[in-house]
């Protein structure tokens, strides 16, 4: 027995990890230093954090991918958005605390934010967002920036770090870098960037809608969210351009084709209630003479305006039928996010001109979107917009907003 007690435990022969994650160093085990989650933390399903920056190596393997810098300064290949595999400093931020939040946001997107995106109730779509998109982001600068920006916004909305200045700076810097790198990259779409550009557009669309929560009512009347409408309309153009410059449409296994193929925004459903052209018919009826601000002197222009309203109201009817049929929340969100993308551009022009009928139609959209108020990127935006539109309409037209106000109240937002 005495001899058995003297037998020493075998030693694990490996180099001490000086730049591994905090958990591996605390446990004194070897860390493979994989980012954003090392093998040990992944195996134990625990959070993985790095608080030490490794010294830059003398050389970098030619095939090693680096996450692009949010500042967009580590790409000398022009404005294509692709990231060069060249030796550089640690690719996130000079500040260690800033680097922590950027890595934390990247990880948070894969495990949390991705599950809240439109269509993620479907396993294939959820897998595209949580697994394929983060990999694409490592080699496409605009997607990396927008992914970090949206995930940082999610962290700010759903954690106790809302006042952390480094997280706020991470969000602001990534969002600014996303816009700066995204626009030039769209001019050079190709087969190797089209899919990532489409994913970037969707994330930007969600980000822009989430930012509507920062809007506040104006004392001088209703100010329509024209920026959101224009950005969303631009998403359609990106998808059309990507389709012509990419072979992804012929590859059903691509992540973006998984998202597109499962899209439901044009699918009609049976709600079991009032149906057809009777729904929202009052939005297309005549308005009091001098309040028909969108009226044009030319008959052809009036016909164009009438068609724009009819197409837009038809899309509202599709959404309402889906709501009444009990469609899953994230399926409804696809319809909400595609609304502004698919309505006629003339309708957006009418909203920008503050035509009363156009504002009332927009109010009906926001009322329907109140069904998704529990999602962090929707929140109380729909209810606030509905009430602001009602208050901004002339008293003679406020009856057009009776249904939206009642519907919002039924959702618990009134």
UniProtKB/TrEMBL annotation:
UniProt-listed CDD domains: GAL4
Gene Ontology molecular function, alphabetical: DNA-binding transcription factor activity, RNA polymerase II-specific; zinc ion binding
Region (Disordered): 59-90
Keywords: Nucleus
Keyword Metal-binding in record: no
Superkingdom of origin: Eukaryota
UniProt domain Zn(2)-C6 fungal-type: residue ranges: 20-50
Keyword set includes RNA-binding: no
Regions of compositional bias (Low complexity) in chain numbering: 66-83
Pfam families on file: Zn_clus
Name this protein carries in UniProt: Zn(2)-C6 fungal-type domain-containing protein
Upper taxonomic lineage: Eukaryota, Fungi, Dikarya, Ascomycota, Pezizomycotina
């Amino acid at each position: 027995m005495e001899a058995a007690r003297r037998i020493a435990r075998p030693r694990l022969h490996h180099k001490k990890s000086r730049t591994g994650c905090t958990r591996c160093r605390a446990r004194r085990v070897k860390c493979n230093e994989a980012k954003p989650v090392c093998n040990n933390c992944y195996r134990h399903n625990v959070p993985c954090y790095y608080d030490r920056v490794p010294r830059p190596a003398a050389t970098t393997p030619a095939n090693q991918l680096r996450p692009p810098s949010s500042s967009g300064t580590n790409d000398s290949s022009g404005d294509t958005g692709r990231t060069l595999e060249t030796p550089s400093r640690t690719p996130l931020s000079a500040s260690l605390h800033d680097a922590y939040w950027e890595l934390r946001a990247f990880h948070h997107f894969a495990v949390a934010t991705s599950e809240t995106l439109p269509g993620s109730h479907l396993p294939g779509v959820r897998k595209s967002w949580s697994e394929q998109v983060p990999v694409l982001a490592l080699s496409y600068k605009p997607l990396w920036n927008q992914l970090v920006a949206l995930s940082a916004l999610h962290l700010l909305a759903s954690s106790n770090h809302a006042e952390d200045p480094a997280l706020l700076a991470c969000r602001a810097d990534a969002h600014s870098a996303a816009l700066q790198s995204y626009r030039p990259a769209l001019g050079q779409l190709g087969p190797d960037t089209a899919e990532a550009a489409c994913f970037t557009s969707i994330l930007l669309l969600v980000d822009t809608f989430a930012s509507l929560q920062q809007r506040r009512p104006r004392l001088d009347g209703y100010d329509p969210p024209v920026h959101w409408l224009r950005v969303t309309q631009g998403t359609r153009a990106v998808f059309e351009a990507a389709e012509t410059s990419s072979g992804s449409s012929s590859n059903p296994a691509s992540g973006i084709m998984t998202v597109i193929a499962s899209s439901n925004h044009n699918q009609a459903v049976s709600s079991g209630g009032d149906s057809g052209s009777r729904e929202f018919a009052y939005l297309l009826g005549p308005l009091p003479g001098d309040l028909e601000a969108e009226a044009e002197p030319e008959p052809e222009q009036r016909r164009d305006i009438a068609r724009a309203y009819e197409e837009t109201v038809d899309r509202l009817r599709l959404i309402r039928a889906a709501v009444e049929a009990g469609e899953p929340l994230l399926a409804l969100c696809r319809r909400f996010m595609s609304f502004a993308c698919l309505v006629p551009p003339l309708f957006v022009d009418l909203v920008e001109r503050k035509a009363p009928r156009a504002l009332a139609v927009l109010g009906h959209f926001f009322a329907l979107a109140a069904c998704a108020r529990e999602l962090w990127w929707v929140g109380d935006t729909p209810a606030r917009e509905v009430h602001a539109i009602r208050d901004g309409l002339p008293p003679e037209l406020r009856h057009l907003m009776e249904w939206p106000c009642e519907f919002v109240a039924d959702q618990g937002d009134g």
